[in-house]
Amino acid sequence: MRSLVAFICLAQLLSYAPARSPLPSPVRDPNCDDPDVEQAALAAVQYVNSNHRHGYKYTLNQIDKVRVYQRRPAGEVYSMEIDLLETTCHVLDPTPLENCTVRQLIEHAVEGDCDVSVLKLDNQFVVLNAKCESSPDSAEDVRKVCLDCALLAPLNDTKVLHAVDAALAAFNAQNHTSYFKLLEISRAQLAPLHSSVYVEFVVVPTDCSPKDVADPAVCNLLADQYGFCKATLTEKVGGEDVAASCTVFGTAPVVPGPQPDGVGPTVGPTVAAGRHPVFPAKPVWSHLPHHDLRHSIVGVGSFESASGEHGPAQGSGPVIPGPGPAAPAIPLCPGRLRHFKI
């Protein structure tokens, strides 16, 4: 009798087993062009642009790899490799990224490569970690599309420094209420065939009047605005010509971004999206290559996944609402190319 009862109970248990929902896989490999994957990548791009302090904004070019881990007690972590391209907007420029122009191959384009981890929780995406590096296109590749195009030059090249000094002097000689000091040399190109130097640099106003500056060292920087300048110095017989134009922007207060439940305080230096970082006390051009993204390494720690594997920890970053129902994804990885390949 007892054997019969045990058999009936076992049969009932087995009959319920198919109705149970299967446990989610601790690791999955979605398509690189899956809508959720793209949302995670866009959050990472916004985070990188908000956290690196020098040079230019970057935009998403391609998603190379992605793996998704279940996170305890809730959520998923997207571990990705993404390719970025440099735009013509400086990181201090308030222009929205979608309105920034991608720097073309003939301008000696620069590519960024990032390893990122993004948490999806309650249909929101929060960046946990981003580690990036960048490199310019090769001179050989630029020459293939443009034989006489200017190539990138070291920021401490004597011709570059002279061009910046001359352009800044010309800018300060105009009618301004403040004397401007150099904050950063952002980009430099040499065009030997035309005997010219092209530079882009950032300046900051001071509490001195341009007409009354005897010693620039005593002028204090003002953090309420900055200027982004483009200039060309061309050597000519008996002298040189300098053409410079600067755009002065006002700053906006830094406002912390919203945080979903379960995400802790900021890890590393963070600037709210679209805001301006605090100005450093000294110019930074002397030790930063113009295309270097290695100073954008942000986020540390680890997270616990359902599989027991470990990765970057909970930090903070821009929060981007998740998409609606996912459309069928056709390609696998790498994903589609949005601009061009370097």
Q: CATH topology of the largest domain, anyone?
A: Nuclear Transport Factor 2, Chain: A
Distance between the termini: 77 Å
Rounded radius of gyration (Å):
26 Å
Decide which structural class fits the backbone.
alpha+beta
Mean of the pLDDT scores? 78
Query: In the CATH hierarchy, what is the architecture of the largest domain at level 2?
Result: Roll
Low-confidence stretches are 252-282, 300-315
Report a brief summary of the structure:
The longest helix is centred in the first third of the chain and has 17 residues, at 35-51. The chain has helices at residues 2-16, 35-51, 139-145, 158-173, and strands at residues 27-28, 56-70, 76-90, 110-121, 124-136, 151-152, 180-191, 196-205, 225-236, 239-250, 303-304, 310-311, 319-321. It has 342 residues and is α+β, with helices and mostly antiparallel strands.
Task: Walk me through the structure.
By secondary structure, the protein is an alpha+beta fold. The chain folds into two domains: 23-141 and 256-321, Nuclear Transport Factor 2, Chain: A (Roll), CATH 3.10.450.10; 171-250, Nuclear Transport Factor 2, Chain: A (Roll), CATH 3.10.450.10. The protein is built from four helices and 13 strands. The chain has helices spanning 2-16, 35-51, 139-145, 158-173, and strands spanning 27-28, 56-70, 76-90, 110-121, 124-136, 151-152, 180-191, 196-205, 225-236, 239-250, 303-304, 310-311, 319-321. A six-stranded antiparallel sheet has the order 1-2-3-4-5-13, covered by helices on one side. A five-stranded antiparallel sheet has the order 6-7-8-9-10, with helices on one face. A two-stranded antiparallel ribbon has the order 11-12. The longest helix has 17 residues, at 35-51. The protein starts with a helix and ends in a 21-residue tail after the last strand. The relative contact order is 0.21.
